[in-house]
Amino acid sequence: MTMFLANSSPISVSLSSRTKLLPSSLSSSVNGSSGVRFSNRNVGCKIKVHASKEANNGPVLDITFEPFEEVKKEFFNIPTNPHVSLARQKYSDQCEAALNAQINVEYNVSYVYHAMYAYFDRDNNMRGGRVMLQSMLMPLSEFDHAEKSDALNAMELALSLEKLNNEKLLNLHSIANEKNDTHLVDFIESQFLVGQVEDIKKISEYVAQLRRVGKGHGVWHFDQMLLNGGVAA
């Protein structure tokens, strides 16, 4: 087999006549008496096959792969924009926008169902209160940073959000304490504040780890450690 790649020397390898091992996407046609010509119609790859004989080895096919002209076209170039996925192919902006709109619809429908649940469950609520769901702001969709890794930037944001959430819980706790609502005070302390402190501590460790490992391979290694059970404090 002789393979010709762009800007490289040909590589010669012998291939047996068992052509069934070739990809099923390759179509074949007889090319005169010299042998068979295969053509991959999907990517424009052309393969020439010529029958030859070697001593004591029987028929052998010499295959020459011509340059892949299709990969030179712009739509086959690998994206370099960090905001464009390497896996993106023939995925139109219109389809992406429509899908994102549908995701937003699904979230809003789910939010309405939460409101319905709260309404029909209110008579059975432990304290007899009413849930009043409010509007929410659109979150960020990109977390890259010029100096930090996107992982560190996102984790620092998560730490800030957890600290903000803890601050709001403390404010709620203060109001409950001020109104002598001992039940609500106990509920906030046991169900939220303890777990909130633990979460802040854990995310703080993650931020410290990511600041030490830097960008690139360090972030990948950190991610693998998380998948395998966590990182060292």
Explain how this protein is built.
This protein starts with a strand and ends in a 6-residue tail after the last helix. The chain has helices at residues 93-121, 150-178, 182-213, 217-227; strands at residues 2-3, 11-12, 26-31, 35-40, 45-54, 58-65. Strands 2-1-6-5-4-3 form a six-stranded mixed sheet, with no helix packed on it. It has two domains: 2-75; 140-233, Up-down Bundle (Ferritin), CATH 1.20.1260. A hairpin with a 3-residue loop joins strand 3 (26-31) and strand 4 (35-40). Helices cover 43% and strands 15% of the residues. The protein has four helices and six strands. The chain has 233 residues and is α+β, with helices and mostly antiparallel strands. The model is unreliable at 1-44 (pLDDT under 50).
Give the CATH architecture of the largest domain: Up-down Bundle
SSE pattern: EEEEEEHHHH
General form: extended
Mean pLDDT: 77
Poorly predicted ranges: 1-44
Strands across the major sheet, in which order?
2-1-6-5-4-3
CATH superfamily of the largest domain: Ferritin, core subunit, four-helix bundle
Helix content: 40-55%
Total strand segments:
6
What is the top-level CATH class of the largest domain? Mainly Alpha
The largest β sheet comes out as: 6 strands, mixed
| Total domain modules | 2
In CATH, the topology of the largest domain is named Ferritin
The termini sit apart by: 55 Å
Question: How many DSSP helices?
Answer: 4
Structural class: alpha+beta
Radius of gyration: 31 Å
* Residue share in β-strands: 5-15%
